Amino acid sequence: MSAHLPRLALIGFGEAASTFARAGNWGAAACGWDIVPERRAAMADYGVIAASSAEEALGGAGTVLALVTADTALEAARDYAPYIRPGTLWCDMNSVAPDTKRAAAEEINRAGGRYVDLAVMAPVNPQQLAVPTLLAGPDAADAMAELGALGFTNLRIVGDAIGRASAIKMIRSVMVKGIEALTWECAEAASAAGVLDEVLASLDASEKRAPWAEKFAYNRERMELHGVRRAVEMEESAKTLAGLGVDPIMTRGTVQRQRQAAKRTRKDEAA
Hints:
With 271 residues, this protein is of the alpha/beta class.
């Protein structure tokens, strides 16, 4: 199967990259690099060739999936741009602000690569390669074809401008992650006051799409498990709003609440 696939480099091998690799069954077509040794060691379990360096991973690749952490996305583009071949598609799937993506694009394009702004619009599990993904940039159509060949099935181009896909994701995240933070705060206060059942009943009466108890449980679980990563993403959302002239008051609060939820979980686990 791998003989018919684009030569692929995976930069970063966390939850998203490993999920895609397992679902895609890319075999020898995929070569990966991660700065964390344990993640490099895990690549063989997903059929991915583990490179000994970023330069090795990128040297023969025509397509790159950049899936590092949000706070290292620009650094990865800057550090690894010298290793890409002319014409390489750098598909940046990181959740960062449009300005961050535009700065990363400058690094990649200066090195002769073709930068594409991608936004993954839902958790990669359980949808895997069917996760809704937006693409933007002058080379989005070429990237869409390459990703389709790799097995991605839910791709949509939203424009030619780098940062447009990211803007959709970041601004949407103000609501999605903000609701999670408000849920946490409301549940904590209601529990402390001994009125959680009454608050839940009142909310259920005003919105019938799903019981609020389910929403509370789900949102709080996501914060406790992924609060650190989500806080980093929301910092990028705050940058996005600030860049648009909108003071991100609630978004800054969401960053703090996401971090606190994750910190509390770590304390509970250590107790």
